[in-house]
């Protein structure tokens, strides 16, 4: 059986179409089609159902996909271990929440330690599908409602209320959430979320932002310009708090904490690259504490 043809078959199933697999693998569609036809002939079974909407595995194809994938990954790891002179090599496909500047520092140091690992990092509000999008590890913020992945807790982040001294000079410093809600607010809003309420545990206050966005850099810009109060993640606000360009509001208020998890496929054997990344993240975050 052709090992390379099996790898291409797995790539096509993961991508959902020959064209998507071609883009991802850098292999012409004609080559993909020919190699998978040869694999089907060698196995004497149809592996894929082809249509104008894409491809999907047949019942036998799905069985072959599930059993072959683990074997291919193990063989690739074995091949790398004897051909890379003990250096980790390859490409790691990651997903990180947008505007998550803390992780850029982590990735810089990760690639300094592993210079032969190439990294593709997807950043979007959209929750990626680890299988369809071919992502090895995703960083997720907040609570998870997923059963088919392994979620490894990595850290928690806090959100802070901040404003510039210029704004506070005009309006005064609020002492409660209700007082803060009367100030101009630049708030976070995504396409599918427009619920504006602050909750300190003992106090809940609804507010109406005069400006809202899903871009953290825009919220920082509005806060620095003295245009409004913003709620930022602690690591995003820290440089401006230290310089005095922003002031933390209501420091005694119960802070909103968000858990961070690194997730990867439950039934997918983690490759040497994935294991190195997971271990590095745990080590790097441990130094922050």
SSE blueprint and pairings:
Elements: H1 3-15, H2 18-25, H3 29-43, E1 48-51, E2 54-57, H4 59-83, E3 90-96, H5 101-113, E4 117-123, E5 137-141, E6 149-163, H6 165-171, H7 177-181, E7 186-188, E8 197-199, E9 204-206, E10 211-213, H8 216-224, E11 230-233, H9 234-243, E12 247-249, E13 256-265, H10 272-288
Parallel strand pairs: 3-4, 3-5, 7-10
Antiparallel strand pairs: 1-2, 5-13, 6-11, 6-12, 6-13, 8-9
Helix pairs in contact: 1-2, 1-3, 1-4
What does this structure look like?
This protein is an alpha/beta fold. The chain folds into three domains: 3-83, Orthogonal Bundle (Arc Repressor Mutant, subunit A); 90-155 and 259-288, D-Maltodextrin-Binding Protein, domain 2 (3-Layer(aba) Sandwich); 157-255, Periplasmic binding protein-like II (D-Maltodextrin-Binding Protein, domain 2). The chain is built from ten helices and 13 strands. It has helices at residues 3-15, 18-25, 29-43, 59-83, 101-113, 165-171, 177-181, 216-224, 234-243, 272-288, and strands at 48-51, 54-57, 90-96, 117-123, 137-141, 149-163, 186-188, 197-199, 204-206, 211-213, 230-233, 247-249, 256-265. Strands 3, 4, 5, 6, 11, 12 and 13 form a seven-stranded mixed β-sheet that branches. A two-stranded antiparallel sheet has the order 1-2. The chain has a two-stranded parallel sheet with strand order 7-10. A hairpin with a 4-residue loop joins strand 8 and strand 9 (204-206). Helix 1 (3-15) packs across helix 3 and helix 1 (3-15) packs across helix 4 (59-83). The chain is elongated. 22% of the residues are buried.
């Amino acid at each position: 059986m052709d090992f390379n043809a099996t790898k291409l078959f797995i790539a096509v199933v993961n991508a959902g179409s020959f064209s998507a697999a071609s883009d991802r693998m850098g292999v012409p569609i004609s080559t993909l089609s020919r190699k998978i036809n040869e694999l089907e002939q060698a196995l004497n079974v149809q592996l894929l159902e082809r249509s104008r909407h894409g491809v999907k595995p047949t019942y036998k194809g799905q069985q072959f996909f599930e059993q072959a994938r683990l074997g291919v990954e193990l063989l690739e790891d074995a091949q790398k271990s004897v051909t890379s002179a003990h250096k980790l090599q390859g490409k790691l496909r990651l997903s990180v929440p947008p505007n998550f500047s803390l992780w850029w520092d982590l990735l810089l140091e990760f690639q300094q330690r592993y210079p032969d690992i190439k990294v593709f990092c997807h950043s979007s509000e959209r929750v990626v599908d680890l299988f369809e999008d071919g992502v090895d590890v995703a960083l997720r913020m907040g609570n998870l409602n997923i059963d088919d992945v392994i979620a490894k807790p990595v850290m928690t982040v806090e959100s802070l209320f901040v404003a510039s001294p210029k704004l506070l000079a005009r309006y005064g410093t609020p002492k409660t959430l209700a007082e803060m809600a009367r100030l101009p607010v630049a708030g976070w809003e995504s396409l599918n979320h427009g619920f504006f309420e602050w909750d300190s545990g003992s106090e809940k206050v609804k507010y109406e932002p005069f400006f809202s966005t899903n871009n953290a850099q825009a919220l920082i810009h509005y806060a620095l310009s003295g245009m409004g109060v913003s709620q930022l993640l602690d690591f995003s606000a820290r440089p401006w708090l230290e310089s005095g360009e922003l002031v933390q509001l209501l420091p005694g208020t119960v802070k909103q904490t968000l858990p961070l998890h690194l997730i990867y496929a439950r039934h997918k054997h983690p490759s040497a690259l994935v294991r190195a990344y997971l271990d590095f993240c745990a080590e790097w975050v441990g130094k922050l504490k």
